[in-house]
Amino acid sequence: MPNPTAAMIVIGDEILSGRTRDANMHYLAGELTAAGIDLREVRVVSDDAAAIVSAIRAMSAAFDHVFTSGGIGPTHDDITADCVAQAFDDHIGVRADAAKLLGDHYATSGRDFNEARQRMARIPDSATLINNPVSVAPGFTVQNVHVMAGVPSVFQAMVASVLPTLMGGAPLLSQTLRVNQGEGDIAGPLRDLAARFPDLSIGSYPFQHNGAYGADIIIRGSDAAQVDGAMLALSQLFAEPS
């Protein structure tokens, strides 16, 4: 049975402008791989409502799970929650459960739970909240879309809250062999090896070191015996002369 599939939508002009380097995709990919959920696509969209709504609708229909990062803070350009509500034709407003979490947090810290901070309690009616042990402001899930903060520490905490609730498959295993030959020389044997092991992913990642060409060959799959068998065959193909 194939593993569940996932996609990610990274939201924010600051990512597209190069002002902020995204770290959340790398983290999510590793966590999903360990959980047996295959990350198939990542899309980066601007702070544009139509683009966000379109991406949510398309990816929610195409994948088992969709994770979003960014755009759920207190400022005017934090529009992700509204876009998710629009994508699913859901009503959105300040939710009592989210408002209590935030109100209690700000009361404890002696800060005003003002109008801007109340924006973070605007949650679609049908959503379930995602716990945020770092800064309290919750993420949320609507259908198969998990809406999370863009701040890496908060994003990671939210992923840790959500993943145990999802049904995963077999974790993806990988093995690597470094081959000191150029890709033009190894392409044919690698093609034949891939045909012998159609259920595995066999990737070639070239490098150049001190004027010499080579490639790291990475074999990935969920069946340990197949991965071991393909790695043995690969090692025999490109065994270094003794």
Write structural notes for this entry.
This protein has 242 residues and is of the alpha/beta class. Helices cover 39% and strands 26% of the residues. It contains nine helices and eleven strands. The chain has helices at 13-16, 24-35, 49-62, 80-87, 96-109, 115-118, 152-162, 183-196, 224-237, and strands at 5-11, 38-45, 65-69, 92-94, 122-124, 128-130, 139-142, 145-148, 173-179, 201-209, 212-221. Strands 2-1-3-8-7-6 form a six-stranded mixed β-sheet, with helices on both faces. A three-stranded antiparallel β-sheet has the order 9-11-10. A two-stranded antiparallel ribbon has the order 4-5. A hairpin with a 2-residue loop joins β10 and β11 (212-221). α2 (24-35) runs parallel beside α7, α3 packs across α4 (80-87) and α8 runs antiparallel to α9. The longest helix has 14 residues, at 49-62. The radius of gyration is 22 Å and the shape is elongated. The mean pLDDT is 92.
